[in-house]
């Protein structure tokens, strides 16, 4: 609610969203209008998706429980696999190879979160095991 105006914004793609509320007549002949500028990036946590940090996770969803982590960044990193309630299930230290394979075949089917941490960045991605 902004100066008596109520509105919802439903962006459909990333980028700048501008909402202009038309002029409203107020008491004593005054006018009021509002403009709201929002940048929408689909990241609820404010933490960048892994693809923005130079990582590619595939296949996702995984039918076999084997996932590949690919990066062109020449650095070591750690991969954490988390349950939906935030518990760390597994952790892997990866070397600076451009392609690493992770075996999650003994995990139950379902939704997980994959966290990659480098010395400079942190990123998350949803991971589905089918």
Structure description:
With 130 residues, this protein is mostly beta strands. It has 2 domains: 1-42, no CATH class; 50-129, Immunoglobulin-like (Sandwich), CATH 2.60.40. Helix content is 0%, strand content 50%. The chain contains no helices and 9 strands. The strands form 3 sheets. It has a 4-stranded antiparallel sheet with strand order 6-5-8-9, with no helix packed on it. A 3-stranded antiparallel sheet has the order 3-4-7, with no helix packed on it. The chain has a two-stranded antiparallel ribbon with strand order 1-2. The chain is elongated.
What is the approximate shape?
Answer: elongated
Helix content range of the residues, please? under 10%
List how many beta strands DSSP finds. Answer: 9
Tell me the series of helices and strands, N- to C-terminal. EEEEEEEEE
Question: How many distinct helices?
Answer: 0
User: Which topology of the largest domain does CATH recognise?
Assistant: Immunoglobulin-like
Structural class by secondary-structure content: mainly beta
* Largest sheet, strands/sense/barrel: 4 strands, antiparallel
- Pick out the low-confidence regions: none
Strand content: over 45%
Mean pLDDT: 77
Distance between the termini: 43 Å
């Amino acid at each position: 609610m902004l100066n008596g105006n109520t509105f919802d914004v439903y962006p459909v793609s990333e980028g700048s969203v501008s909402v202009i509320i038309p002029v409203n007549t107020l008491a004593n002949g005054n006018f009021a209008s509002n403009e709201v500028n929002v940048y929408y990036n689909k990241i609820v946590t404010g933490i960048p998706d892994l693809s923005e940090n130079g990582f590619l996770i595939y296949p996702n969803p995984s039918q076999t429980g084997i996932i590949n982590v690919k990066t062109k960044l020449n650095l070591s990193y750690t991969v954490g696999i988390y349950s939906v309630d935030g518990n760390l299930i597994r952790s892997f230290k990866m070397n600076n190879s451009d392609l690493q394979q992770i075996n999650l075949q003994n995990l139950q089917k379902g939704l997980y979160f994959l966290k990659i941490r480098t010395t400079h960045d942190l990123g998350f991605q949803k991971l589905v095991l089918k």
